[in-house]
Amino acid sequence: MIRSDKDILSVLHSSLGACAIYDSPDLHISYASAKMLQLWNCDESAIGQRLEDSLQQQELLECVSRLKQVWSNPKGPVEEHLTIKLNPAGEPGTSNYRMDYQPLISADGEIYGLYHTIMLLPDPIPAAQQVTEKNNIEQQLLEDLLTPKYSLGGNVQAITSLSKYPLPDREAKNLNLKLRDALKKIIESEEHYHFALQSAEMGTWNLNCKSYVVHWDERTRELFGFVHGETAPYTEVLRYIHPDDRTKIDQEVKKSLIDQNKGVYDVQFRTIGAKDQKLRWLHCKGKMYFDSNQQPEWFAGTTLDITQQHAEREKLEAINTLITQKDQEFRMIVEAAGIGIFSIDVESRKMELNDQCRELFGFDGQQEIQEVDFFAQILPQYRDKVSHIFQEVVSKQLPFDCQCEIEDKKTGKVKWLRSVGGGQLAADSNRQIVYGAIFDTTNDKEEERKKLDFISIASHELKTPLTSLIAYIQLLLAKEQTLSSEKRLQYLHRSNEQAIRMRGLIDGFLNVSQLNEGKLLLHKNTFQICTLINYIQNIYSLKPVKHFIHYTGATDSSVEIVADRDKIEQVIINFMDNAIKYSPTNSTIIMDVAVDHAYFSVKVSDQGRGIGDKHQKQIFNKFYRVNDSTDSYASGFGIGLFICREIIQKHQGKIGVDSKLAEGSTFWFKIPIHSQTAPVTGIQTATKKD
Question: Is the dihedral of CA 493, 497, 500, 506 positive or negative?
C-alpha cells in the first residue's frame, strides 16, 4: 500500500518516464524525475532552480517559452510531437519525442502548477513485443508503488520482489490514470502544506549535506534579509547570524549531523539582515536525514520570526524584574520601619506573618500560626473589642484601625500595638482574606503618658507659687493699715520671688516649645568669662541658701569667649539649683571653672545621694525624672536638663554627669572658646551684669 506522498514521489523519481512539476510562472522546478534530469544533463541540484537556468541541452530551450505560454493560458492539456537531437544514452542521434503540458488547476480555477512530461517515440515494433514491454513496465511501476522504499526516518530499505505474484494485464491508460491520481494527491498535499506555512508566516529551508548549499523559500530569505537568490552557500548564511549566536548555531548544525543525536534541530537565535541590516529573532526547527550508510544526506526544516514574541518576553521579564525589585524595596522599607505585616485566611484560620510581625508578638520564626495563637497574646481586657472589630471586617468588608496591649510570647513584656488593614477576596479564589499592618506604639504611648504627667506636674508647679503669691497679696490688702514697713517689704519681697519662680516655669515651657519647632536660636556675643562667673556668685550670695558653696578654678579668667551668654548662664544656674535641691542641708557644693586654649568648662559637684547608671543614660531626655519616693519634696517636671543639653549641643559642646550612689553627683559641660559655626548670630560685646 502507498504509505505517504514521499513514497509516490519516490516512485515517480525512479520511473522510466521523464516528468517534472513547476510551481511558479517563471518555471521554478518543484520536482523532476531521474529520467528528466538525465535529459536535461544535470543533477538534483537543479530542483529549486528556474528551468531556463538549469537546462544544459540547448535543443530544449525552445520548450521554455512554450511552457510559459501554457501557464499564461491554462486551457487544458497540450501535446506536441518534436524531432530533436538528444543523447540521453550517451550516443548522438535524432529521435522523435512527445511533450505533454498539463496545467494543474485548483477548485477556484486558479493555476498552481504545471506537469511536464517528455516521452521518446520509438520506431514501430510488433504488437506482441509491445504487449510484453507494456506488462514489464506496468509490473515494475506496481512493484515500486506497492513497495515502501523509505522508512519514517528516511532510510532506504530493500525492495521486495513481486515477481512470484502474477500481475493482471492492464491497459497503459489505466496505469497513466493511477499515476495522475497519485500526482494530484501530492500536489494537493503540497498546496495544503504551503497554505499552512503562509498562514503561520513560516519559511522552509533545506541544506544539501554534500554541497553545503542552502535552498530556502522566499519567506526564509526575507527573514535573513536576502532579497534574491533561492540558494546560498552555508558559510554565507552563517555569516549573517548575530556574532554572539554564530558559534552556537554552527555547533548545533554539526551536532545534528551525528546520527546518534537523531538529527533533531531546535534553536533560537538572532540574525542581522544581509541587505536591510535589521535585527531579528528566529526560531528554527529541523531534522537531518541519513542515507543507507547512516551518512547525512539532507537537512530540512522551518523558520519562524519570533522577534515580537522575544521583545514581549523581554518586556515581561523587565516587568517581573521591576516587580521583584519593587517588592524587595517595599520589604526593605517595611523592615526598616519596623512594620509587621499579617494576613488571615477566614476559612482555614491560618495566618501569614512577616519576620517583623513574628518578632513583635514573640513567635518562633518557623512556627505555624493560627488565629487563636494571635488572639491569645492580646491582653484579656482588649480581646472582646478586637474580636468585634474582626467580625465587622469579615461581615462588612470594612477597614479597621485599632490599638491594644499584647504580651510578648518570648520576653513577657507588655507592648502597645496599633493595627490598620481591611478585608477582601483573594485574587485567585473566593477565599476571604483579612490583612493588616502592625506598628509598635509603646514609645508613643509612653510619650503620651509623659505629656499627661508633664501637664499634671506643670499644673502643680504653677499652682504652688501662684497660691503663695495670692496669699501674700491678700495679706497686704487685709492688713495694709496695721503692717509695719518692714513686714510690708518682706511680703513684697516674697511675692516677687514667687512671681520670678512662675516666670522661670513659663520660660521653661517656651524653651521646650521652641525646641520642638526648631526655633531655639543662639544669640552669640563676645564676653569675658570672669564677668559671667561673678554674676553667678552674686546671685547665690543674695539667696537664702542653706549650703556651703565654693568656687574653684579659673573664676577670675579674663579670657574672652564667643557664645550666647544668657543661655550658658541658664545652664550653670540649672546645675546649681539642682545641686541645692537634691543635696542635704549644710552640705558642700563646688563649682569648678576651667579654661584652656580651646575650651571653657564648668563642673558643679554636690554631696547628694547620687544617680544610678540606669538613670544617668536618660536624665537629659525630655520629661525624664528619677522616680524616687525620697525626692517627693523636690519640684520640677523634667525639662531643665533637656534644655541644657540642647543649648550645649548648639554650641558644639559636650554635656554629661558623673555620679555614684551615696557619693554625690557632678554635672559638667564644655564648649569651644571660639565659635566653630558660621555665621555667628547677634555678635556683640556684652556688658557686665550686676
Answer: negative
Q: Where are the beta strands (DSSP E) in 427-570?
A: 432-440, 525-528, 548-553, 560-563
Hey, what's the cell of 595? 579654661
Q: Which residue has the higher pLDDT, 158 or 331?
A: 331
Most confident of the ranges 175-179, 181-185, 263-267, 629-633? 263-267
Rounded to whole angstroms, the Cα distance separating 586 from 359 reads: 53
Query: What dihedral angle (degrees, nearest 10) is formed by the CA atoms of 467, 471, 473, 478?
Result: 150
Q: Which long-range contacts (CB under 8 A, 24 or more apart) does 198-202 make?
A: 200/304, 201/304, 201/305, 202/302, 202/303, 202/304
Question: How many other CB atoms are there within 10 angstroms of residue 351's CB atom?
Answer: 19
- 550 beta partners: 590
Q: Does this model's pTM top 0.70?
A: no
Q: What is the DSSP letter of 258?
A: S
| Burial class for 541, CB neighbours closer than 10 Å (0-12, 13-18, 19+) | exposed
CA atoms 235, 241, 246, 249: torsion sign: negative
CB 657 within 8 Å of CB 536: no
Mean pLDDT throughout 499-514? Answer: 69
Q: 671 falls in which pLDDT band (50, 70, 90)?
A: very high
Q: What torsion, rounded to 10 degrees, do the Cα atoms 496, 498, 503, 505 define?
A: 160
Lowest mean pLDDT among 459-468, 608-617, 637-646: 459-468
All 3 cell numbers of residue 339? 512594620
Give the least confident one: 37-51, 147-161, 506-520: 147-161
Q: Length of the chain in residues, anyone?
A: 690
Radius of gyration of the chain (CA): 54
Which residues, listed in sequence order, are joined to residue 416 by a DSSP beta bridge? 405
Measured on CA atoms in the order 232, 235, 236, 241, is the torsion positive or negative? Answer: positive
Query: Sheet harboring 94-105: ordered strands across?
Result: 29-32, 18-22, 111-121, 94-105, 78-85
Q: What dihedral angle (degrees, nearest 10) is formed by the CA atoms of 381, 385, 388, 394? A: -110
Would the CA dihedral through 453, 458, 459, 461 be positive or negative?
positive
Q: Which set of grid coordinates corresponds to residue 489?
A: 517689704
Please state the φ and ψ torsions of residue 206, each to the nearest 5 degrees.
-150, 150
Where residue 396 falls (left for φ over 0; alpha for ψ -120 to 50; beta otherwise) is alpha
Listed residue (405, 341, 419, 346) closest to 377, CA to CA: 405
Q: Which residues contact 538 (CB under 8 A, 6 or more apart)?
A: 690
Which of the four pLDDT bands, split at 50, 70 and 90, describes residue 605?
Answer: very high
Residue 82 confidence class, pLDDT cut points 50, 70, 90: low
Q: Helix 640-650 and helix 485-516: axis angle, to 10°? A: 60
pLDDT band per the 50, 70, 90 thresholds, residue 373: confident
566-to-219, 535, 536, 555 alpha-carbon distances in Å: 91, 11, 11, 18
The closest of 127, 119, 129, 121 to 176, measured between CA atoms, is 119
Instruction: Provide long-range contacts, Cβ within 8 A and 24+ apart, for 158-164.
Output: 163/139
